[in-house]
């Protein structure tokens, strides 16, 4: 590595733990759509996968010793017991192993000031981890299914950022995004601020104010890789974190 060229930072991405078919195999697997990895690598980072597994605070700390940034990715709904609600009929059967894994990684990341980007489910993980709640089924709130068309079809929609937030600095006043969610943030977790809403006034992004990079969006930036600004931001923050750790 040329001494004048900074090393590419390592960014960990959480994964699904689900059944998958590949070749002749049909088995439970830790996996993640390749677009997430492409977003990180195109932005100049090195992507590593962090599959759900039994976790303790010590294990979470060991895992995060090897990365300079954390992306909490999309996936099935969180267990509503984690925010004090009974499950709605439309809420997914929870994956408690993944829930515990991501809550532990996030707690340790926040403790050490590690840069964090949450994507869709990841925004909900951040909010619930800090004491917030979720709307379990948006059609009950809005009267329409506009945020999740179904059958793997993403819904393009405009969002408005909140002036003075990190997200507004990154994306400007408005941005067209790709959505696929039937749940959304209700009550905000402690210290979080809203950094974007859509035309239905649904919260589409949250962040923690301050120097540490902690930002989460309800949409899927990996579905719009012609716009790498969020991936570039987490990779840049990871690079600064790595440099500070070395120095």
Automatic annotation (TrEMBL):
<dbReference type="InterPro" id="IPR029062">
    <property type="entry name" value="Class_I_gatase-like"/>
</dbReference>
<protein>
    <submittedName>
        <fullName>Anthranilate synthase</fullName>
    </submittedName>
</protein>
<dbReference type="InterPro" id="IPR044668">
    <property type="entry name" value="PuuD-like"/>
</dbReference>
<dbReference type="Pfam" id="PF07722">
    <property type="entry name" value="Peptidase_C26"/>
</dbReference>
<dbReference type="InterPro" id="IPR011697">
    <property type="entry name" value="Peptidase_C26"/>
</dbReference>
<dbReference type="GO" id="GO:0033969">
    <property type="term" value="F:gamma-glutamyl-gamma-aminobutyrate hydrolase activity"/>
</dbReference>
<dbReference type="GO" id="GO:0005829">
    <property type="term" value="C:cytosol"/>
</dbReference>
<dbReference type="GO" id="GO:0006598">
    <property type="term" value="P:polyamine catabolic process"/>
</dbReference>
């Amino acid at each position: 590595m040329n001494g004048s060229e900074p090393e590419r930072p390592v960014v960990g991405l959480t994964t699904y733990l689900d059944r998958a078919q590949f070749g002749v195999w049909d088995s439970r697997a830790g996996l993640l759509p390749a677009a997430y990895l492409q977003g990180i690598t195109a932005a100049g980072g090195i992507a590593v996968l962090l599959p759900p597994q039994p976790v303790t605070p010590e294990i979470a700390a060991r895992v995060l010793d090897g990365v300079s940034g954390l992306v909490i990715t999309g996936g099935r709904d969180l267990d509503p017991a984690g925010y004090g609600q009974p499950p709605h009929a439309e809420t997914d059967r929870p994956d408690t192993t993944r829930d515990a894994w991501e809550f532990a990684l996030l707690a340790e990341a926040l403790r050490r000031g590690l840069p964090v980007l949450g994507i869709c489910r990841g925004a909900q993980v951040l909010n619930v981890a800090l004491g917030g709640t979720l709307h379990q089924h948006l059609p009950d709130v809005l009267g329409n299914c506009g945020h999740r068309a179904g059958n793997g079809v993403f819904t393009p929609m405009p969002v408005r950022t909140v002036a003075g937030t990190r997200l507004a600095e990154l994306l400007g006043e408005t941005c067209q995004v790709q959505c696929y969610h039937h749940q959304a943030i209700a009550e905000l977790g402690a210290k979080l601020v809203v950094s974007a809403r859509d035309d239905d006034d649904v919260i589409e992004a949250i962040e923690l104010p301050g120097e540490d990079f902690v930002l989460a969006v309800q949409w899927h930036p990996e579905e719009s890789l012609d716009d790498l600004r969020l991936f570039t931001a987490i990779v840049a923050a990871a690079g600064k974190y790595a440099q500070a750790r070395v120095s």
